Amino acid sequence: MTTIALFGAAGKIGARIAKLLSEDSSYKTLFIEAGEAGQERLRAAGLTPTPEAEAVPPADVVILAVPDLFIGKIAAGIVPVLKSGAMVIGLDPAAPHSGKLPPRSDISYFITHPCHPPVYNNETEELARTDYFGGVAKQNIVCSLMQGPEAHYALGEEIARKMFAPVMNAHRITVEQMAIL
């Protein structure tokens, strides 16, 4: 079983990811939310908040579902305590492309982002036909293994497909290419 620590678990995208991961028994997900209001939203959703100090050390994967401006600060605090072989998943290329992720050669950085559902699609349900942000309509995603062993790409894509479900295709590109998009 893969242990995932999800930062920003009660935020806009974090709450969606938290719901999807909590429904999948192949993951043990630890939900991290800094503020009391966010922790209360987690509890209201039936999820138990976990303190960062308890969630990060055992995590196989850490997902940073937080605003780009906080990624550097959060990463600086967690990367030193990650176990060797862990993976950090970022949901946007801005911070990684700007050098905000601390160097550490024995962990992986995987960056992913949804492409949003196509405006013209073949969805049959009205709700899916008018879903422009994902979650109902199928969408493509882009993925990049910024650093780490090639075997970690498959794990990163698997988790990305779960986070952004339903997914049509996952396109492998570089972080630089993702930043240009």
What does it look like?
This protein is α/β, with parallel strands linked by helices and 181 residues long. The chain has a single domain (2-114, 143-180), classed as NAD(P)-binding Rossmann-like Domain (Rossmann fold), CATH 3.40.50. The chain contains eight helices and seven strands, in the order βαβααβαβαβαβαβα. The protein has helices at residues 12-22, 36-44, 52-55, 68-78, 94-97, 126-129, 151-163, 175-180; strands at 2-7, 27-32, 61-64, 87-90, 108-114, 139-147, 167-172. Strands 2-1-3-4-5-6-7 form a seven-stranded mixed sheet, with helices on one face. The radius of gyration is 16 Å and the shape is globular. The N and C termini lie far apart (34 Å). The relative contact order is 0.14. The mean pLDDT is 92.
Offer a few descriptive terms.
8 helices, 23% strand, alpha/beta, globular, seven-stranded mixed sheet, 181 residues, single chain, 7 strands, Rossmann fold
